[in-house]
């Protein structure tokens, strides 16, 4: 049995249709404009990085894509069909999983319990239905399967408490949970911000493995070397608008920073 069975059943995206698309999103907070007509497209098996200076609208954009905010104007499409997320759970139900910078893991629980946090399984039969007994052994077995599928070799024991793991290992747990249940899109918010070089490289390898498995990834990061290492395309936000969409092949890191700060245009 695969861990993905608790997620939305993956449905192939029609060829040529973006998995996730935003059209002219607008979001205001009183007189403050968070997003001003922002559009983007995310395709199957693609890593789309979103970069921008502080206040550029990156967080607002991500929150609109994942149900934390409801756009004032504009349209969201999943597999070409309009969707209306009123809360984060709506996006999760649709197969969009988000790993925020603060991780949202439970330190006291073990690795397997964190992977199934909020989606715990009960034992079959009367033990599960009447006594509500959790299927701990089954969840641990499937957690091992998921970690192996993602090639996470640093987490051999799924019974160890997350509070005993390193920062990189905790990030791996959060990414593995998102990959397990994110049947459509995985969103990563600054996944390497608090990590050292070795642990950051492990997270970047995880992102590349997700792409190999045709899971599209949205990566928000301030780390330009990391962005240029793994991204297929780079969406640049500036002052609430999309300044440009570039690729690591068409532009340099210097070019990206210049567009991001307004010193140059694409």
From TrEMBL:
> A Pfam family this protein belongs to?
ABC_tran
State the InterPro entries in the record: AAA+_ATPase, ABC_carbohydrate_import_ATPase, ABC_transporter-like_ATP-bd, ABC_transporter-like_CS, P-loop_NTPase
Task: Provide a Gene Ontology MF annotation, just one.
Answer: ATP hydrolysis activity
The transmembrane segments are none
Nucleotide-binding listed as a keyword: yes
The cross-references to Gene3D superfamilies, in alphabetical order and at most eight, read: P-loop containing nucleotide triphosphate hydrolases (3.40.50.300)
Q: Which residues form the ABC transporter domain?
A: 20-264
The UniProt keyword set, sorted, is: ATP-binding, Nucleotide-binding
Q: Identify the CDD domains for this entry.
A: ABC_Carb_Monos_I
Q: State the protein's name.
A: Sugar ABC transporter ATP-binding protein
The organism is Pseudoclavibacter chungangensis
